[in-house]
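Support reply, case 0932

Customer input (verbatim):
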Amino acid sequence: ATKLVSHPLVGCSAARLVAGSVQARSLVHAASHSESESQRSGEQHAPPSGKKGVIGIRKEDKSPWERRCPITPKHVKALKDQGLSVLVEPSRVRCFSDAEFQAAGAVITPDLSPAQLILGVKEVPVQQLQRDKSYMFFSHTHKAQPYNMPMLDAILDKKITLIDYERIANQEGRLCKFGPYAGFAGMIDALSALGLACIERSFATPFLHISRSMEYRSLESARQDLIQCGDTIRKHGLPPEMSPLTIVITGTGSVSQAAQQILHHLPC
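Our regenerated output:
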């Protein structure tokens, strides 16, 4: 089981400043929760290495198409206005450019070692985990997922404080989550992959004209392709090789509901 521990940077004025964002509310909640955990356990934790008041933003490298980042240039400016420093690893893939972060006051550097707290989105490769640091990212370990146990072992071995977004919650549930967007992106990608799979089997379908979610500038632009795909199916039907087409979705949560919204653009 993972446990949050107290962190001298979390809960400071920088976190309070951007309290309108999920990220900031998560930081504040993590601070209060971890402090109470430490008080109950009576444990003493050494402060993280690095300079106090310095936050690092790592570039995502789990997947070559990953463009997300944990905070935006707007948040960087808010943190700078409160006297904190933000280091950003350079990236030519990230949805916000290095120039945008730099204009907001961040320092673009490949070296995040001066930072006490390092933020990311997805898992950090074991060899890149820095000893005695604090990290915030989706670790996908709280269910003891086997493929990430080596990373969790390394986190423990390197005495890293891990604040996992999935474990930041209040009485109403998780505070930091992608929610319906996981369902939107997942179903769009599934339909796009279906079109490619069919063309590899030597027959074309209307799904071939649906791009991957990462290639759309907005959800609305994806909807337009879905609507056109649905109109084509209504007019011409589907190839006999894949008719009738049955798509089954399990679950009733926000991801499932969002995926169903995407499918509602198709005839049923």
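We compared this against your earlier run and they match. Two observations from our side: The first strand starts at residue 51 and ends at 57. The chain is about 35% helix and 10% strand. Please reopen the case if you see a mismatch on your end.
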